[in-house]
Amino acid sequence: MLAAAEFREEREELQALISSGIFHRAPHLLSFLTYVCERSFQGQGDQIKEYTIGVEAFRRLPDFDPKKDSIVRVEAHRLRRRLEEYYVAEGKAHRIRIEIPNGQYTPRFIVQDQPSKHVSAAGSAGSPRQVGVAVAYRSGSLERAQAKVETSDGSRERSSWPWSLLLLGVVISGLAVLWHSVSIRPAESPAAREETWSGTATQPVPAEFRMLTGYHGAPFTDQQGHSWSPDAYFTGGFSASIPGEHLIQGEPEPNLLRSQRSGKFRYDIPLTKGTHELRLYFAETEFGPGNRGGGGETARMFHIQINGVDAVPWIDPIAEAGGANRMLVRVFKDVTPAADGKLHLAFASLTIPALVGRPAFLNALEILQSKPGFIHPIRIVTQDQPFTDVDGRTWSSDEYFFGGSLAYRSEPVVNARDKALYRGERYGNFSYHIPLAKGKFRLTLHFAETWFGTPESNEPALGARRFSVFANGSALLQNFEIAKEAGVNREVTKVFENLEPGACGALWVEFVPLENYAEVNAIEVEQTE
C-alpha cells in the first residue's frame, strides 16, 4: 500500500478538478469523486462499494438498497462523462488523469508523459509518434500499464517502458524530497510576487455575501444552498490551496476550506449602509502536531484590523480552535462601512522575531446584513440537509460539531409539533463549538429518546441512556435521562438563559456520556441582549 505522501500529485489533480468549476451545480458528482478518491488515498479501495457510496457519500439512510435506488449507478455514469469532457478540453495537458472505469467505482490515476516529437523511421522530421508511459494507481496499489508506440505508418510497437518508468521514478522521488523541504506558502519563495485583485468594485456586495479567500474557480454552492464567491477585493498576500490530506474538523462540509490567502494583505469590500455581521474563517493546516511546521499554541499569531481599528490584537488559531486542522470562526457584530463606503480588513503577523516567516492567513469570510446590536440566530438540526420548520424558519444542516456520529430514526416523535425536526440525531461523546459575538444568548436543546424503549412501555428505556451537558465548562444538565423526563418517542426541550461566549468567541457545548451515548436532535442559539 502506498503511503499517503506518495499521492501528493494525485491529490493536487483532484483539487484542480474541484477548483475548475466543472462540478458547479453538481454536488452529487463532487461528493462522489471526493469520496472514492479519499478512500483510495487511504488504501481502502476495496471498501468502495455501491452501498457505501450511497450511504456515506450521498447520505442515504442505512436501509439504502442499491437494487431499488439506482442513484449511484446514474451518478457514476454522469461522473465518467464529466471527467471525459474535462480531459478532452481543459485538462488535456494534465500529467495525471483521474478515471472511473466502467463497471467499477474505484478510481484510477493515470500518469501520462507528454507526447514528444521524433524523426520518423524514414528520416523525415516533423512526423510525430506518441511515446509515453502510463502508470495506474488503484486502491493504493501500483499497476503498470505498458504503453504502446504509434509509428508514422499507423503500426504499433511496444515502448521500452521499464527504462522510462525508472527515470520517472527518479524524477518523482526528487520532487517528493523537494516538496517536503518547502512550505506550501508561496510567500516564502523569493520569486513570488504579491497579488492584487484586477477587478473593479463598483457596486456593494449582496446582503448575504460569502467568499473563499485564495480561491479562483467558479462560485461554489455548499450543502446549505449558500453560494461562495471566488477571491476578490484583495491587495497583497498570496493565494494557495490546502492539500487534500488535511481533514479539517468542524468544517461544515468537505472541500469548503481548501484555499487561503496568506502574508500581509487587506480586503476593501464595498458595503451597503447599515450594520452587518462579519464572520472570518480560519483552519491551521501548516503548524501544529502532525503538520509540516510542527509546534503547537503560539506557533502562528497575527492581528486583524477592521476599518483601521485593532479588532483582534492577536489571534492564535491553534489555541482558539482547540487544536490544529480545526475550523475556527470569529464573529463580529455592528460592522459598518467606512466613510468611503467600503469595509477595510487588514491582516498582518505580529512583529515578534519568533514569528518571522509565519504570516497571517484567512480561509473564508461571510458578511450578512443584521439588526443593530444583534447577530443572526443559529439553528442547527442534526441532519445532512437544511430544514424549514412549520413556522418557516430555516435550520442549517449539522455543523460546528467535533466527534460523535450522525444517525436517522424511523420512529416518529409523537408529541412534537414539528416531527421532522427529530428525524436525525448526533450521538456519542461530542461537542459543538458555536461561534458568537459578544452578548448574552439563549440556548435551546431539543431531545427525543427514539432508540431505547418502546412507546408502549417506558420501563426498558429507564436508565439505558444518561449523560451530562456543559457550556464552556459549566454544567447545564447532569445525569440527564431523556426517557425519564419525557418518555419514549416524545420530545423534550431544555432552555438556558444568559449564556455568554468564552474568551475565544465561541460557546462550547459538550455532551458527555455516563451510560451509553449522549444524543441531541437540534440546537438553537439566539441573542437576547
What does this structure look like?
The protein is of the alpha+beta class. Helices cover 16% and strands 33% of the residues. It has 3 domains: 4-181, no CATH class; 197-369, Jelly Rolls (Sandwich); 378-527, Sandwich (Jelly Rolls). It is built from 7 helices and 32 strands. The strands form 9 sheets. Strands 10, 11, 13, 14, 16 and 17 form a 6-stranded antiparallel sheet that branches. A 5-stranded antiparallel sheet has the order 22-25-30-27-28. Strands 1-2-3-4 form a 4-stranded antiparallel sheet. α2 packs across α4. It starts with 7 loop residues before the first helix and ends with a strand. Mean pLDDT is 82; it is low at 115-168 and 170-191.
Strand portion, in percent? 25-35%
Shape: globular
Give the rounded overall mean pLDDT. Answer: 82
Low-confidence stretches: 115-168, 170-191
N/C terminus separation: 56 Å
Count of discrete alpha- or pi-helical segments spanning 4 or more residues = 7
Tell me the major beta sheet.
6 strands, antiparallel
**Class derived from helix and strand content:** alpha+beta
The percent of residues in helical segments reads: 10-25%
The structural domain count equals 3
CA-based gyration radius:
26 Å
Oligomerization state of this entry? Answer: single chain
Can you count the beta strands?
32
